[in-house]
Amino acid sequence: MTRLAAVVFDVDGTLVDSERDGHRVAFNTAFAEAGLPDHWDVTTYGGLLPIAGGARRLASWFESTGRTPVEARRLAERLHARKTEIMRDLIADGRVQARPGVHRLLDELDAASIPVHVATTGTRAWVEPLLERVFGPRFQTVVTGTEVPELKPSPEVYLEVLRRTGCPADRTVAVEDSANGVRAAVAAGLRCVAAYNPYTRDDDLSGAALVTGGLDDPALVAWFRRHN
Question: Where is coiled-coil annotated (predicted)?
Fold first, then answer.
């Protein structure tokens, strides 16, 4: 690969530590407010993460715990709306922070005049305030699950970023943390760098050009410096 044309970041678990103490907390608060007995501990929530999208995750859970498909879908839609409101509150309170090394990597890409974008399955209602609070106006293009309903591992969100930016796929790199994300990026024709987290350390990330334990990993830092 010659010099990078752009870098496209996933959000959950990649740019920010948002799953265990962000989304999971918001889901459990929504359960409690609705008077439901459901509760996701750290391990249970980790097992649900391969199901892309919060509403789909809820519907799958509700069906697995005895609700009918129709009841599960309706309950999931209602709970997910409230969960999103709670997540926005957690973000406003500073409960969701950048992963170590993210700001330094973004600074280096900015210094090299390499555009950075976002491709996420998260909804814009919470993604936008999160990016603004934690990173400011860093990202040129942000595409979310609100605009692209085909969630990862579908490549559609990455293809939409490419369509909007005109970036050549063979010179654009995705940064992901999970198997679904890596599959989506590779299917869109992008090279992918994976920085797993405690939830995704056992995912199949073999499609990535580089697999590391974080965005502060020296191997990842060196990889980007070689391609600036």
Answer: none
Closest CA to 161 of 153, 172, 146, 175: 172
Domain with CATH 3.40.50.1000 in the chain: 6-17+97-227
Q: Following DSSP, what letter does each residue of 56-109 receive, concatenated?
A: HHHHHHHHHTT--HHHHHHHHHHHHHHHHHHHHHHHHTT-SEEPTTHHHHHHHH
Beta strand 16-17 with 210-212 is: unpaired
CA–CA gap between residue 154 and residue 52 (Å, rounded): 10
Report the top-level CATH class of 19-92: mainly alpha
Distance, CA of 158 to chain centre:
12
State pTM to two decimals: 0.94
- pLDDT tens sequence across 172-205: 999 999 999 999 999 999 999 999 999 999 999 9
Residue positions annotated with a catalytic role: 10, 12
CA–CA distance, 90 with 86 (Å, rounded to integer): 6
Is 195:102 a contact under the CB 8 Å cutoff? no
For residue 166, give every residue at least 6 positions away whose Cβ sits within 8 Å of its Cβ, in sequence order, or none: none
Start-end of CATH 1.10.150.240 domains in the chain:
19-92
What are the C-alpha distances in Å from 29 to residues 34, 37, 52, 84?
Answer: 9, 11, 20, 11
Give the bridge partners for 6, in sequence order. Answer: 172
Buried b (16+ CB within 10 A) or exposed e, 160-173: bbbeebebebeebb
Average pLDDT of the chain, as a whole number:
96
